[in-house]
Automatic annotation (TrEMBL):
It holds the Pfam family PID. This is PID domain-containing protein. InterPro entries: PH-like_dom_sf, PTB/PI_dom. Residues 12-105 form the PID domain.
C-alpha cells in the first residue's frame, strides 16, 4: 500500500490564492471561486497522481510534472459532482503565513468526481486533510 499511486485524468482549469484566516472563511472563499469557475474557456489535460506522499499533476504521458505537493502541505479538498469539479488547497514550499493556493480540476463525468474524491480520501487516511463534498 505504501507505494500505491492512483491515477486520474482531469482538466486543470486554474488556481487561485486563499489567505483567509479561519477554516469557515477559507471554505466560503473556495466555494465562491469554484462557482465562478463552473464556466471555463481554458483548460489543460492532466493526470492527477495521488499517493501517500502527496499529489502530483502531470502531463498525459506522465513525462512532465507540472506541480507536486507533499502531503504535509495539503490542508483541504472538496468536490462538486454536479459540476464535475475537484479542488484541493495546498501551501507552497516557501509559503508564508496562511497563504495557500486552491488548484481546480474538472473530470469527465460526475462518477469521476466520486473516484477522485476517493483518491483524496485515501490521502486523508494518512493525514489530517479536511475533505468536503458539495452536491448542489
Amino acid at each position: 500500500m505504501k507505494d500505491e499511486i492512483i491515477y486520474r485524468h482531469s482538466l486543470y482549469v486554474g488556481s487561485f490564492p486563499v489567505d483567509e484566516q479561519d477554516n469557515v472563511c477559507r471554505a466560503q472563499k473556495v466555494q465562491k471561486e469554484l462557482e465562478s469557475l463552473r464556466c471555463f474557456t481554458r483548460s489543460k489535460s492532466v493526470i492527477v497522481c495521488v499517493s501517500i506522499s502527496g499529489i502530483k499533476i502531470c502531463s498525459d504521458d506522465l513525462k512532465i510534472v507540472y506541480m507536486a505537493h507533499a502531503l504535509r502541505r495539503i490542508s483541504y479538498a472538496t468536490c462538486d459532482a454536479v459540476h464535475k469539479q475537484v479542488a484541493f488547497l495546498a501551501r507552497e514550499p516557501s509559503g508564508f503565513g496562511n497563504l495557500q493556493y486552491c488548484h481546480v480540476f474538472v473530470t469527465e463525468s460526475p462518477c469521476d468526481v466520486s473516484s477522485q474524491c476517493m483518491s483524496f480520501y485515501f490521502l486523508n487516511k494518512a493525514s489530517s486533510i479536511v475533505i468536503h463534498s458539495h452536491n448542489s
